[in-house]
Amino acid sequence: VQLQASGGGLVQAGGSLRLSCAASGRTFSMYSVGWFRQGPGNEREFVAAVSWSRDVTYYAESMKGRFTISRDDANNTVYLQMNSLKPEDTAVYYCAAGPNAYGLSGPDDYDYWGQGTQVTVSS
Q1: Closest CA to 121 of 41, 5, 45, 8
Q2: Counting runs of H as helices and runs of E as strands, what totals does the chain give?
Q3: In this predicted model, what pLDDT tens digit does every residue of 32-84 receive, in sequence order?
Q4: In whole angstroms, what is the distance from residue 121 CA to residue 118 CA?
């Protein structure tokens, strides 16, 4: 599976962005997809994930109510809608895919990673 993340950019605090993760290769519908982010000087942290099993979604606590993850298996794409963005959301955002159906909050749950897209939120 090859992943291509896109949709990042510069936005003011309170604004919105929608990130896309486009996949190619094997049967995308059989993979769970997660988003992680890594800010300057920070470790990579979990943002959200959507399972291949019944499209169950998971969110990091600080993203609940602001971010929404969804998948479009017909187009092999997963989206991350980010609203009410804050300067602390500034990071490189990565999408990842893996075969696990549950948990999905750790990098070890994923086998494939995209290249990342930069999100910058100005105050």
Answers
A1: 8
A2: 0, 11
A3: 999 999 998 999 999 999 999 888 999 999 999 999 999 999 999 999 999 99
A4: 10
